[in-house]
Amino acid sequence: xxxxxxxxxxxxxxxxxxxxxxxxxxxxxxxxxxxxxxxxxxxxxxxxxxxxxxxxxxxxxxxxxxxxxxxxxxxxxxxxxxxxxxxxxxxxxxxxxxxxxxxxxxxxxxxxxxxxxxxxxxxxxxxxxxxxxxxxxxxxxxxxxxxxxxxxxxxxxxxxxxxxxxxxxxxxxxxxxxxxxxxxxxxxxxxxxxxxxxxxxxxxxxxxxxxxxxxxxxxxxxxxxxxxxxxxxxxxxxxxxxxxxxxxxxxxxxxxxxxxxxxxxxxxxxxxxxxxxxxxxxxxxxxxxxxxxxxxxxxxxxxxx
Amino acid sequence: xxxxxxxxxxxxxxxxxxxxxxxxxxxxxxxxxxxxxxxxxxxxxxxxxxxxxxxxxxxxxxxxxxxxxxxxxxxxxxxxxxxxxxxxxxxxxxxxxxxxxxxxxxxxxxxxxxxxxxxxxxxxxxxxxxxxxxxxxxxxxxxxxxxxxxxxxxxxxxxxxxxxxxxxxxxxxxxxxxxxxxxxxxxxxxxxxxxxxxxxxxxxxxxxxxxxxxxxxxxxxxxxxxxxxxxxxxxxxxxxxxxxxxxxxxxxxxxxxxxxxxxxxxxxxxxxxxxxxxxxxxxxxxxxxxxxxxxxxxxxxxxxx
Lengths: 305, 305
Fold this sequence. Notes:
Two copies of one chain form a homodimer. Chain A contains eight helices and 13 strands. By secondary structure, chain A is α+β, with helices and mostly antiparallel strands. In chain A, the strands form two sheets. In chain A, strands 4-3-2-6-5-1-12-13 form an eight-stranded mixed sheet. In chain A, strands 8-9-10-11 form a four-stranded antiparallel sheet. In chain A, helix 3 (105-115) links the parallel strand 3 and strand 4 (120-122). In chain A, helix 1 (21-43) runs antiparallel to helix 2 and helix 3 (105-115) packs across helix 4 (124-132). Chain A is globular and about 50 Å long. At the A-B interface, strand 3, strand 4, helix 4, strand 7 and helix 6 of A face strand 3, strand 4, helix 4, strand 7 and helix 6 of B. Strand 7 of chain A pairs antiparallel with strand 4 (120-122) of chain B.
């Protein structure tokens, strides 16, 4: 069976001029490294659930992306991290929201999937659950980079919420989708949310059906963008429904949601998706999307524009 | 144009013997009163969004149901309230989770829909937002009834989470769906969640797509039951997708989700739904569902079994 994996590091970027060649090269290098972490697991016969989890841990650890270390700060100058993961075999899922001390939110989401009767835990109860499951806890300022702090100081007190990097219109999220040697699908997403978001705001990333979806019968999907529009379009599960009920291909379904249905409501962003034959789709309606994929034939794609 | 409204007060109840005739009569009386509150607004030409909001406020104020006053207590013996509302005209939505001091969670969800760039606010930030919008705040023990406290004392320290009323297997939520004179649809849901739930657990009620969905092109849906299964089936938006993409009628789509897809994963519960012609469906896979409806011809339905 073909194996395949795709990851993203956020969408946005209206102008090429706003991304320096040096920064772009650093991001592309990191994306390549992170996608290969997941692909290595698939190559060794590992499960798609493990591959997406490992790829997202790598993205969380990389300070270039808005998840885990390097996440943006909310309107109070604090970190609040969200993540979710879904297993296409039985549609079991785990998600966490507004974490403040758990180093890798995707590991907390995975612990919820494995060990909880619940699917979504939010706030202090979610960090507490992660602690009970021996996940590493850090001080909130461990996540904070100087760049994010300066960014927060610039927008603090304004109503601006859509920015991620500096003056770039990036909706930062990270995510991964994979198809393993058994044809099983999985999806995972993680984020720090929007810069200057109101205390307690949850976007689409921790919401199963909006930010993350996986169903072996159709596809695994991760979305990134202005989360509210992905909630209103039920974006991730919608790609699956368009395939199952509407007869669309993976590419058609992902394009329709990311490039038609989300923009029709006024939103923007991108989607990564994979089906059980290893086909990958990565459409976006923004200027760019940080992304990487390893196709069934071993070809590695890394791109921004 | 025909007007119609349906409400529910939770599903569950495996045995008739566990619901006393006196308690059933009280519940049915309350359901009739609450559905008529919403219907009165529709009759006067009011919007479906206003009708579902008013009906849910009435249900929240009634201590018989697990929402607002009379809500269940979590594993810490505390109240955490969730609600969501969606407008089928443009799929705008608002939701709140883990409120502790806002008297009417559905009014907070509506304030998010009307006044926030965000869709979902959770925790102290959500109560704070409600305060900013002049919504009444109460002490947490205002919500607590003696019955709920005794129930908490019985299950505290155990792993039991699925109970609502005493020994009855009720998944308490309240909700409303309506079609107004303009053919516009809206849906609203509110809950205290599951008895003895872990701190921070969010079910399907605050999740747009799982617990609540409204789209003028298809239907308005509210779900009640074991929330985790309604998240994994993307229940509310799924009813809409089965109509739009699968060609099913409202009754067929609602039945398929509530009585086939949710039970296939091991879950149970019910759905209320209305389409733009005023057709109402109220299927459930549990022994009973507290429900009431006013059909386009003025007929009032109230039932449990």
